Amino acid sequence: MSEVQTKIAALKKYLETQIIGQEDLVNKLLITMLADGHVLVEGAPGLAKTKAVKILSGCVDASYNRIQFTPDLLPSDITGSEIYVAQKGEFSFRQGPVFANLVLADEINRAPAKVQSALLEAMAERQVSVGGKKYALPPLFMVMATQNPIEHEGTYNLPEAQLDRFLMYVKIGQPEAETEHKILHLIRGEDKKVQADLFKPLGIDDILTARSEVLDVHMSEAVEEYLVQLIIATRHPERYNEKLTGQVLYGASPRATIALDKCSKIHAWLKGRDFVAPEDIHAVVYDILRHRIILSFEAMAEGVTTDKIITELLKVVPLP
User: Architecture of 215-316 per CATH?
Assistant: First the structure.
C-alpha cells in the first residue's frame, strides 16, 4: 500500500470508532470524497448523519458548514450575496455557507425548488454566480444532503433530473442491540484512550493525492463490458428478463456509467488492490443506480422498488 493509502485506511478505521454501526455510510462518504462527488443520505433522525460529516471534516483539516433547510430559506442564504458597504461606497460579496470543503445540507427536501436548485448548481458547476461575477468553490468540495424518510408533509421532493447530480444515494437503517450498547459506551467516554491512538489527521493535499492514485487502478476489458451491460440492462431490462417488461420507465444515464466506473475503482483502491473485480462493482451499484432508475406506475403499484430491479439485473447479467 502507498503512503496515502495507509493514511486513508487509518482515517476509515478511526471514523468507524466514532460513528458506530454505520460502516457502510463511512465507506460511502470516503468513496464520494475521493471521487470528487456528492452524496444524498436517507435515514431516520439520530443515526449520526450530521456527526459523520462533522467528524470527517475535522479529520482532513477541512472547513465544514451545516445548512438547515427550511421552507422560508432563500437561495442567497446558501450562496451568499452582495452587501453595500457605506464606508467604501461599493458592494462587497459576502460568502454563504456553501463556501466550505464539506457542506451538510440537512433535510434538503424541506426547502422549495429555487433553494434546492441554488445548491445543486453549485454542486455541478463548482462555482457561484452573483451580480455578474463568478466565485470558485474550493478544490475539495463535497455536499452531503440528507432526507428524512418518515416525514413527507411540508416537503419538496427532489426531481429525478436533480437527483442524478448526486454521485450516490445511500440509505441507512437503525442499529442492532449490540451496536446500541457500543454507542452508549462511546457517548459515556469509555473508549477515549482507544480512539486517541487510532488516528493521525490528514491534509487536503493527501485527499488530492489519493484522487490521483485512484486513476491508476486497472479495469480489464471484460469487467468494463460487465459494467456497461449492467447500465444497458437498466434501460432494456426485458432483454435480460421477460418478467421485468414494462417495469422500468427510464434507465440509468451515462452519468451512472461514469460514476460506477469511478466508484468501483475507488472501492478496489480502498481494499488495497490495483485492479477492479466484479465485487467492487457490486459494492457500490445500489447506491449509484437506485436514484437513476425511474419505475413505471404499474411497477410502483405492485410494490416494486428500484433496489429489487437492481437485484434482479445482477442475477441475469452474466459475470465476466
Answer: Orthogonal Bundle (1.10)
